[in-house]
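User: I'm writing a short methods note and want a consistent example. For Fructose transport system permease protein, I'll paste the sequence; you return only the structure tokens, no commentary, since I'll be parsing the reply automatically.
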Amino acid sequence: MTEETQGPVATAAGPQPHGFEDRRAETPLQRLQHVLHARPILGPLAVLLLAIIAFSFVSDRFLTAANLGLVMQQVTVIAVLALGQTLVILTAGIDLSVGAIAVFSSIIMANLATDLGLPGVPALLAGIVCGTAMGAFNGFLVTRIALPPFIVTLGTLSIFFSLNSVVSRSETVRGTDMPSIMTWTGTAFPIGDFRLTYGSIIMLLLFAFFYYALGYTAWGRHVYATGDDIEAARLAGINTGRVLFSVYTVAGLVYAIGAWVLIGRLASASPNVGIEYNLNSITAVVLGGTSLFGGRGLVVGTLVGALIVGVFQNGLQLGGVDVVWQGFAIGLLTLVAVSIDQWIRKVRA
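Assistant:
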């Protein structure tokens, strides 16, 4: 290695290293940029805290235990779907078929239980297998056919929603017609005035599992390495194709579990929901500090991002804001989060 690549050598009598001088010359904004780059969870936590404080002034009902329990129930489905989306985005991909896979899986589960008379557990398992297979199909097209993730998932979005209409015949299956296990995830139990559902418990367990898997396993390190620089990861000996295929497959599995949570949340399986799930899941991921360019982010941040979306929607509803302007606010939040992400990525080493 040459002296130039190593940088100037500091001596006791010589000047301070340039890096130290540069850091001392940083403006407060540049220091904030470095902090957010090193601790990506801090930004989302600050936004969540500020939103909670702001909406507590908008409505006296906002900070009540009953309302906070409602927020948790409202964000559960989006949080689960955003978890799968996080895995894909960490590899520098994107999944536009999130909602289609979740809704189609829920329809498969419901129709197997009602039309074919399968018991609840086999119907659930069959739906989960189908959702996993849909994710694997995305992974096959991305890794074997080498199609861009955006194009692949845009195409499968239409395919899965179309199949969803065919299988469901555009009819909603009521929860009362299904085995009780199908709607169990929507069952709530009280903790004082706070009501938590079993679906929320499943959601928190999933986040805990993937926090460990991404942070403390070889698979997790390979996911980050592939998203950060796929060519460098390949040269380092990582089978990037296998990593990508596993990520899309696991994401499909997570979406299918989200389908079970969705049935419990709605107390039905409806083919007419899920249109906003793509935008909301991506918004939660980006607000949580995961870079759309891959290789940087935490699943804990995604959970915080989903809570930010839920707090904004709930707070705006309590404030009497029209649903149209709620969508406007969420879209604006997404643009701001992506802009901040771009700014953070420009941090100087």
